[in-house]
């Protein structure tokens, strides 16, 4: 297990380099609240995407919604363009079980039928419970199930990754 994680901004730059050759004028970047939106904002700027940025709050699409109830800080989803026939780059901060990504895809399909959905994550930490894997990952590691990788944004906007 690593003593520390790489710098989040370095990983975002690495992710942007990997994603760049696949970006077309039809690509729509969508970040999953909250950390995925932070990463998506940076990718969107680095890739100079022509389309606006989309955001998803998957709170109502979670498979554990009936157990955990409504999160106190539900944010609206913002998808400012038609998804029909679009190539979607879905962005999240940390991929663990795959359940958040499944919920995000369910929500996306409620808005339309994209041509494709590719997944970019800052960190793939292993422990997948569903057959969901990233197309692009800034960093891959394997940690015990009782540990978490957290992305936080400081007041100055700097993003940091920590193991907890």
Indicate the CATH class: Alpha Beta
Query: At the third CATH level, what is the topology name?
Result: Rossmann fold
Number of strands: 7
Major β-sheet profile: 5 strands, parallel
* Helix proportion: 25-40%
Count of separate DSSP helical elements = 4
Mean of pLDDT: 91
Q: How far is it from the N-terminal to the C-terminal residue, by CA?
A: 12 Å
Largest beta sheet: strand ordering: 2-1-3-4-5
Estimate the global geometry from the Cα principal axes: globular
Amount of beta strand: 25-35%
CATH architecture: 3-Layer(aba) Sandwich
Poorly predicted ranges: none
What's the order of the H and E elements?
HEHEHEHEEEE
The radius of gyration computed from the alpha-carbon positions, rounded to a whole number of angstroms, is 15 Å
List the domain count as a whole number: 1
Account of the protein in words:
The chain is an alpha/beta fold and 164 residues long. It has a single domain, classed as 3-Layer(aba) Sandwich (Rossmann fold), CATH 3.40.50.2020. 26% of the residues lie in helices and 26% in strands. The strands form two sheets. Strands 2-1-3-4-5 form a five-stranded parallel beta sheet. Strands 6-7 form a two-stranded antiparallel sheet. A hairpin with a 5-residue loop joins strand 6 and strand 7. Helix 1 packs across helix 2. The protein starts with 7 loop residues before the first helix and ends with a strand. The mean pLDDT is 91.
């Amino acid at each position: 297990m690593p003593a520390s994680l790489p710098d989040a901004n370095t990983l975002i730059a690495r992710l942007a380099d990997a994603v760049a050759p696949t970006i077309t004028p039809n690509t729509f970047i969508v970040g999953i609240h909250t950390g995925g939106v932070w990463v998506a904002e940076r990718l969107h700027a680095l890739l100079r995407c022509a389309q606006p940025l989309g955001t998803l709050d998957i709170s109502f699409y979670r498979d554990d919604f009936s157990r955990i109830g409504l999160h106190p800080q539900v944010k609206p989803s913002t998808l400012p363009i038609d998804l029909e026939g679009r190539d979607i780059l879905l962005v999240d901060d940390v991929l663990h079980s795959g359940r958040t990504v499944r919920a995000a895809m369910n929500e996306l399909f409620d808005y339309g039928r994209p041509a494709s959905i590719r997944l970019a994550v800052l960190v793939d930490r292993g422990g997948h419970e569903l057959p969901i894997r990233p197309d692009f990952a800034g960093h891959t590691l394997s940690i015990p199930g009782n540990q978490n990788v957290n992305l936080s944004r400081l007041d100055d906007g700097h993003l940091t990754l920590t193991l907890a």
